[in-house]
Amino acid sequence: MARDERLILSIAVGASFVAFMNNTVITVALPRITEELGGGLPGQQWMINAYLVTLGSLILVAGSVSDVLGRGLVLRIGLIGFAIASTAIALAPTAELMIAFRALQGAAGAFLVPSSLALITSTFRDAAQARAIGVWTAATSMASIIGPVVGGLLSDFLSWRWAFVANLLPIAIVLLLILKVRLHDEPQRGRVDILGAALCALGLGGLVTALIEGPNQGWDNPLVLTCLLAGGTLFLAFIVRQRYGSAPIVPLEMFKRRNFWSGNLATAFVYAALSLNGFVLAIFLQQSVGLSATAAGLASLPMTIIMILGSSSIGALSGRFGARVFMTVGPIMMALGSLLLLTVSADFNYWQQVLPGVIVFGAGLTVTVSPLTSAVLGSVPSNRSGTASAVNNAVARVSSLVIVAVLAVIVGGQIDLSGFHRAAIVTAILLTAGALVSWIGIRSAVEPRSLSNTTVRAEPCTASDIPVTVGVTRAVPRRV
Question: Which pTM does this prediction carry?
């Protein structure tokens, strides 16, 4: 890479790293926060959920704004907003203000991930783009390891408030790097549809709130029903406006592109399975097996290590050979890893019953994520990559919320050994569906780069001609 390319990749990684690390920092700090500020369990839930609601509500709007105004400007806005929110959280005197500042932090976070990925796609091409996305995936996966460690150490030896002050250093470094490089970033001529943005934010906000609160409050709760119906109605109105409006936030023509719609459908299956596996495994190891929270967290550590070691290489390979094979083989490997968890028995042994499945699952996840992100982002013109990244992130987040919302149905009411086995089977089914969608839908041939309605026949091409596309994680890694 040239100097500017290295700096731009560092900016993209650093901006996303902050959002990913923050997601895991707070989980270990929650007990100390509620000891000092109060709020109890409901307060803890909303300290997490306030971030998720604003992030999920604004991510599509943020993607469109980054395309119209430029990724560099939107990144700076997101970073400065995240720094202000982090400082306010560190100084929060009450649980209520803490929750409000977490909502502000989620709004700022919505501007970081789509813009950083769009910056990569506007700078790198072909195999170099896929490799850069692999580096981005590995680095943001590392945040899931560093977050709990940083949060735990600072909470134990200084104060939980320092866990949020810690965001300021990487933000300052990224802002300095932005000053040192000329970003390959040409804003579109156009405007942001304010009414469309409001319909999108309110619609997604209502749906996300309903999906978060439904399992806790009950689906017949008046608040949940109101959020579900109002959110669904407003989001439907948003889609209608995208069809007939003059400046759509999400041009519906994007979904006519084979790799775009099939990549997002595969994302829905894969990230639902990823969330189901991670959630159930962590709860089962603590509640049924009796492991500590730290030990349960470390149980999935091999998965993250495999992603860190392999994502860059897989990204480069998918850039050469196309994403289709990787997006098919990866989910199948993950499904096999999930089925290996069926060996878990009442006579529990982590090394023999859990570790093999975690390793196979992690290898499959590594094979899947970078090619998936590349397939989605590479299917649209680079001036729409911010919107494409936002759509893919929104799909991943909503699918995760949906699967958690129906968790009780999947496990039969409780995560005992029987429920754990049922969840493993459902995870494998979801991943198999993702593999089938990828094999049938994804194509490695070049798709037309214009978002017009003109039909263009894709001609055969060599591996070096294949455009690279990307997939997020969001991993829970994903994911934020």
Answer: 0.76
